[in-house]
TrEMBL record:
Site residues, Could play a key role in the communication between the regulatory and the substrate sites: Q54, W93
Residues involved in alpha-D-glucose 1-phosphate binding: Y94, G159, E174, K175, S192
Job of this protein: Involved in the biosynthesis of ADP-glucose, a building block required for the elongation reactions to produce glycogen. Catalyzes the reaction between ATP and alpha-D-glucose 1-phosphate (G1P) to produce pyrophosphate and ADP-Glc.
UniProt name for this protein: Glucose-1-phosphate adenylyltransferase
Gene3D superfamilies, A to Z: Hexapeptide repeat proteins (2.160.10.10), Spore Coat Polysaccharide Biosynthesis Protein SpsA, Chain A (3.90.550.10)
Pathway as given in its UniProt record: Glycan biosynthesis; glycogen biosynthesis
Signal peptide: none
Similarity comment: family membership: Belongs to the bacterial/plant glucose-1-phosphate adenylyltransferase family.
EC number, UniProt record: 2.7.7.27
Domain Glucose-1-phosphate adenylyltransferase/Bifunctional protein GlmU-like C-terminal hexapeptide: start-end pairs: 294-397
Length: 410
């Protein structure tokens, strides 16, 4: 079974997660971030899944109910949503990632499975988990950890594996100042992806021991994995061995879209001629809730009033009325009006852009109405008076920010 950890806020996304958890944040024109982990599991042949939720989970739960309700119990398939619900004690929510699983031991027991795949629900990537599970079984490991190959000094932001020549993990350190290098490759290190495979019987006993340890943080990366590295057999699985990508890709695609800049860039990258992330692959589709909407519509064809989109993705239900759109990604039901221009814009569902608006390098949250004539992306000092401007110069616009602007401008 797959146990997806989806309870985190994702505070580095700032106001974009004020109303939803990070795994529920929209991505790629029609999907949510959690769809990638769930689709990877489904495409890997896994038909038993649980999703642990906690922070502002309504949007996430509703999405999973609408888009992932096709599992059939009579075929021994399940997708359970497990909100933090004080099942252990009235004052105890999920304390850490390991605790989220430990509080649901009885539910995992009811699945009657041999192996448990622990997944983070907040990363963008395509991976065949079957290959990782197979390696775990063949190596007779106590835990197998999914690992990214990253430049050694970039690994300071991750949990890092020190491995021997067989990729057995000999040490695990969180965010080290001087990350250990891969044997034979001094310029790179192995960073944890937050993906783990366990034999359920082994993990069950370990979780119960961890719950009884008052000094534990009840976290996989902080407690469970270091304990196994010290006392058992921990094996590294390299992402390059199971990454699903198109033949011409230059790298194994994995993104943590945890900041406004990273989120904007990963979405805008999809507008490129040949994106590194292949959303058109019918052999490894990304499943999601498909809202019933009409096709996108482009209207007006005058010199200064032409509805057009160049190097952009435009979802169904959009109406592009006399607007020039370039290198932008528009989610479902975005409506833009005449004489407006959008460049490098990520517009979430139900956004309305008024006439003569000029928008560049920005992320617009769901349901925001951009007023007529508003210019964003030209003057950072003016933008940051009303909106959030990131370190990389991307402007985030939410409903609350737009209300503040509207109140000040009558």
């Amino acid at each position: 079974m797959a146990f997806v950890l989806a309870g985190g806020r994702g505070s580095r996304l700032k106001e974009l997660t004020d109303l939803r958890a990070k795994p529920a944040v929209y991505f790629g024109g029609k999907t949510r971030i959690i769809d990638f982990a769930l689709s990877n599991a489904l495409n890997s042949g896994i038909r038993k899944m649980s999703i642990a939720t906690q922070y502002k989970a309504h949007s996430l739960i509703r999405h999973c109910q609408r888009g992932w309700s096709f599992f059939r119990a009579e075929r021994n398939e399940y997708l359970d949503i497990l909100p933090a619900s004080q099942r252990v004690a009235e004052d105890k929510w999920y304390i850490g990632t390991a605790d989220a699983v430990a509080q649901n031991i009885d539910i995992v027991d009811s699945y009657d499975v041999d192996y448990v795949l622990i997944l983070a629900g907040d990363h963008i990537y395509k991976m065949d988990y079957e290959l990782m599970i197979r390696q775990h079984v063949e190596a007779k490991a106590d835990v197998t950890v999914g690992c990214l190959t990253v430049p050694r000094m970039d690994a300071r932001a991750f949990g890092v594996m020190d491995v021997d020549e067989t990729d057995r993990i000999t040490a695990f350190v969180e965010k080290p100042a001087d990350p250990p290098a891969i044997p034979g490759d001094p310029d790179h290190a192995l960073a944890s992806m937050g993906i783990y495979v366990f034999t359920w019987k082994f993990l069950r006993e370990l979780l119960m021991e961890d719950e009884a340890n008052l000094d534990s943080r009840h976290d996989f990366g902080g407690d469970i994995i270091p304990h196994i590295v010290k006392n058992g057999k921990a094996q590294a699985h390299r992402f390059t061995s199971s990454c699903v990508q198109h033949p011409g890709a230059s790298e194994a695609y994995w993104r943590d879209v945890g900041t406004v800049d990273a989120y904007w860039q990963a979405n805008i990258d999809l507008t490129g001629f040949t994106p590194e992330l292949d959303l058109w692959d019918k052999n490894w589709p990304i499943w999601t809730y498909a809202e019933s909407v009409p096709p996108a519509k482009f209207i007006h064809d005058q010199a200064d009033r032409r509805g057009q989109a160049v190097s952009s993705l435009v979802a169904g239900g959009c109406i592009i009325s006399g607007t020039d759109i370039r290198n932008s990604l528009l989610f479902t039901n975005v409506h833009t009006n005449s004489y407006a221009s959008l460049s490098g814009v990520v517009a979430l569902p139900d956004v309305v852009v008024g006439r003569h608006a000029n928008l560049s390098r920005c992320v617009i949250d769901r349901g925001v109405h951009i007023p007529e004539g508003l210019t964003v992306g030209q003057d950072p000092r003016e933008d940051e008076k009303w909106f959030r401007v990131s370190e990389g110069g991307v402007t985030l616009i939410t409903k609350a920010m737009m209300d503040k602007w509207s109140a000040a401008h009558g």
